[in-house]
Amino acid sequence: IWQNVPEAPPDAILGIAAAYKACEHPQKVNICVGAYRDDNGNPYVLPTVRKAEYRLLEQNEVKEYLPIEGDRDFVYCAMKFAYGREMDIENHVAAVQSLSGTGACMLGGQFLAQFWGSDHPIYVPNPTWGNHIKIFKQCGLKVRKYRYYDRSKNALDFEGMLKDIKRAKDGSIILLHACAHNPTGCDPTMEQWKEIVSLISSKSHIAFFDSAYQGFATGNSEKDAQAFRYAVSQHVPILLAQSFAKNFGLYGERVGTLSIVCGDVVQKEHIMSELRSIIRPLYSSPPRHGSSIVKTILMDPALKEEYYQECAKMAIRIKKMRKKLEEALQVAGSIHDWSHITKQIGMFAYTGMDEAMCKQLTEEFSIFLTTNGRISMAGLNNTNLTYVANAIQTVTAG
Ligand code: LMR
């Protein structure tokens, strides 16, 4: 009876990760998915995460359902982590636990489609994380793009970005990457953020921040939250999708939050009730292990301090690999200017390689990356660096 079901195309990111797994080349390299690897190319569990897990085991943590909106202590800690100590969470933030950043974007998109109206388009940066477009379309929102990155200059197209946000009809939703823009690794400066926020405010737009890399971009969680904290200080209506996948290395635990900054406690309770109504038929309530880990770390000052250092270490290793890649490309004989690799921040380098070059890297060298030229810097290490640099020099030389 299912003969009319067509085969869907593989996912642009996770489909390539699956192809990497199936590949038998001894020197295969995975620089596709944004997941941290240590210097031996192995997945990394943060020591504080392990410590928290031992504690949970000792405490005989139960496996009961969480409330629909998730673990309240976790959500409270997550909000303090995001918005800072000063924020009046109790009165001004409606927040629920989500299935990582993807789930948070989905909940936010559904909320906006229902309560802001599907005739208000959502503007996403061009380019953006491919899943954003799928998520918001599935929520019934009209998805449009604003200029973000100038490929000819390998830099932010700030003028184009402002023009497009200005041209968008009043009351549009503007999706912004809070830090470490995926895929470009290129963020506005704080001065530029101020201009963006002021423009959004003057157009009565809603700012929807996706924060997937807090602490991972600069190694400093406070600094990486500056953009949306500034937007809050300017009373711009904001939604925030928060993920703990990268900064806590909790990829498979699916832990995050969606929060909506609101006027008062009555609005907050109304929004909470509607978010519960969205969540219940979708997945009832979120999983508890990941959020218990984050809560255990954030509620213990000593563990939290250790965590900050571990997160900063990951950011520093990636930063070092950027320098090493730029140098290795020079040593490999490349005459191109690769300086953008060290200017970019976060998990990814947006190399400027085109689709044909990326496909050649995969077909001839078993180096797996997304076809937009994005490299997950975390997949590079001292063992595979020269191999990758030589291959990039080969495919970009002509
Ligand atoms: C990525 O961009 O590689 C990550 O955010 C993983 C994903 O889910 O796409």
Task: Map the helices and strands.
Blueprint lengths: L13 H9 L6 E2 L16 H12 L13 H12 L5 H4 E6 L1 H18 L4 E5 L3 H9 L4 E5 L1 E2 L4 E2 L1 H10 L5 E5 L12 H13 L3 E6 L14 H8 L4 E6 L12 E6 L3 H19 L5 H10 L2 H31 L7 H5 L4 E3 L4 H11 L1 E2 L5 E3 L8 H12 L2
Parallel strand pairs: 1-12, 3-4, 3-7, 7-8, 8-9
Antiparallel strand pairs: 2-10, 5-6, 9-10, 11-13
Helix pairs in contact: 2-11, 3-11, 5-6, 7-8, 8-9, 12-15, 14-15
The structure holds (2S)-2-hydroxybutanedioic acid.
Family: Belongs to the class-I pyridoxal-phosphate-dependent aminotransferase family.
EC number: 2.6.1.1
GO molecular function, one term: L-aspartate:2-oxoglutarate aminotransferase activity
Describe the structure using short key phrases.
globular, alpha/beta, 13% strand, two-stranded parallel sheet, 15 helices, 2 domains, 398 residues, Aspartate Aminotransferase, domain 1, 7-stranded mixed sheet, aspartate transaminase, binds (2S)-2-hydroxybutanedioic acid, Aspartate Aminotransferase, domain 2
